[in-house]
Design goal:
Elements (H helix, E strand, L loop, with lengths): L3 H6 L3 H15 L5 H13 L1 E10 L4 E3 L1 H4 L3 E5 L4 E6 L2 E14 L9 E7 L4 E7 L2 E5 L7 E6 L2
Keywords: Membrane, Transmembrane, Transmembrane helix
Protein name: Lipocalin-like protein
């Protein structure tokens, strides 16, 4: 409580304290838009994806299940694990995470981009829209791989 002597000298003490409490209540909420977006991004990845094709921009090559003679799929699990299957047999299992990559570390106002990191490897740009998954590493002369959600 505020001593009565203080409120007589400063009649706005209650107002200042009320504003302070309001500010702290609003500023200390646990909900952060980035956390919601990150959670949605993880959910959009989860599930099984069938390999459609891989393009190599550097060599201008394209690989498909037909050209390679096998089927591949990947499964993003809820426990931050991704499993790779070739002809329905598990071939690899790795941890994965999503993280924000700062587009320009020299610019304090630079945007950040959400990237996919598999097995602590190269950061990959990714997109999940209309039951399609695109994993893009072309910025480091890597492949661009296309998947379709298995139903």
């Amino acid at each position: 409580m505020i001593p009565k002597e203080y409120t007589r000298k400063n009649p706005f003490a209650h107002v200042v304290i009320l504003i302070g409490i309001l500010y702290l209540t609003i500023a200390c909420t646990d909900e952060k838009p980035e956390d919601d977006f990150l959670g949605e991004a993880y959910k959009s990845l989860q599930g099984e994806w069938q390999w459609i094709k891989t393009e190599s921009p550097r060599t201008r090559s394209e690989f498909t299940p037909e050209s390679e003679g096998y089927q591949e799929s990947i499964v993003f699990k809820t426990n931050d694990t991704v499993e790779y299957y070739r002809d329905e047999e598990l071939s690899h299992k790795y941890p994965y995470k999503l993280k924000y990559r700062i587009d320009n570390s020299m610019d304090a106002n630079s945007d950040s981009t959400l990237v996919l990191v598999i097995n602590n490897g190269t950061e990959s740009f990714f997109s999940t829209e209309n039951d399609s998954l695109i994993i893009n590493q072309s910025y480091v002369d890597g492949p661009v791989t296309y998947y379709e959600r298995k139903k």
